[in-house]
Amino acid sequence: MVCWLIVAPPHGLYHLCSQAVALLAGNGASRANHDGVLQPVDLNRVERLLILKVSSMGDIVHASPVAAALKRAFPHLYIGWIAEDRHAGVIEGSPRIDRLHIIPHKALRRKPFGREARQVLMQIAREVRAERYQVALDLQGLLKSAIWGVLGRVPIRYGAHRMRELTPLLLRRIPIPEHPDRHVVQQYLDAARWLGAPGEFPDLYTSPSDAHLPEPPVEFPLYVPEEARRQVAHKLASLGVDGKPIISLNPSAGREWKRWDIAKFAELSDRIEAEWGIATVFVGGPGDKPLEERLRELKRRPLRSLIARTTLKEAMAVVERSAVHLCGDTGTAHIAAAFRVPVVSLYGPTSPDRTGPYGQRARALSKRSLCTACPKNQCVRKECLQWITVDEVLASVQPLIRDVGVSPHL
Hints:
Blueprint: H1 2-7, H2 14-25, H3 28-32, E1 48-52, H4 57-73, E2 78-84, H5 85-88, E3 99-103, H6 105-110, H7 115-130, E4 135-138, H8 143-151, E5 156-159, E6 172-173, H9 184-194, H10 226-238, E7 246-250, H11 262-276, E8 279-282, H12 289-298, H13 312-321, E9 324-327, H14 331-338, E10 343-347, H15 352-355, E11 362-366, H16 390-403
Parallel strand pairs: 1-2, 1-4, 2-3, 4-5, 5-6, 7-8, 7-9, 9-10, 10-11
Helix pairs in contact: 4-9, 4-14, 10-13, 11-12, 11-16
């Protein structure tokens, strides 16, 4: 019971959780934070390492180069990862991850005091313990991630990237500086560098000029099975776009204030098809069906939609196959960037410089500099995102289309 309170504390139980954390963690990790400059363990002498990054989808994509960097530098290293089931699929099957531990999010949240939740919790803890990880690397910095290193009895537990809540009791803080405006991909890779792995590898560079890029190429070890690609080819053929270039669009986002006006998405799709002669295909999950209905009402041209008609791996395959991907501040932006698919993402108050899609083929449109009404990373008036116009998006897409060899019929 105490363990589950730590993982997902219901409202009003935070103080109880803090006492439980202190009990579980003991004093070792806390003392280690004050013993001078922390020195990294020698990973040449470590066989098994667990990465703690349980959510969200985009954050997991951003953190995935850490697994690639560690595996490249230490090929002998057995790497595990723990993530919530709603996001774990994005790294499932990755060639750089040997074991994926999946947290059933709904089962734990539905009845946090119930018998089923306790059983699920302890089952996952036993799975982690059975792997006998020697080192845990927490890239989330929250209780819901850090606690798994404790429950899994991992003896050496490092924390990086903004340790919050009570995690300093559970983790040893990696002594690397934080840069508020530096992209999180590079901030995560700082932890890998501290552990002895280079953040970039020359074979990832596609041209000599890459060596001078402000954001050097890194490996995102995502995986799309061939069966997912075959299913997507069949589904696209049913929409009449088999073998033709497509622009995929995702109108959804995790929070309402991160969603660009659905009417603008409809207009954007119509204008791409009418002015450029390129087919557009919408993607999204089961919860996005209402958005699909609105698109059907608003679009002047026929709607091509795979919303709620694909698995996560199939949605990744659609993005992978796209000439360009258009979306808001959501996970598919980062999937596209990971595949080096040109992407234009639309941002409200959050900082695209820090958390936007990573890479030279990524464009993030934002009007946040014009908005002074909202606190950082929050949205009160819900205006700045909507100030982005369809014309501005089209202007950002056009050079990306030409860069990949697709000629709009202008």
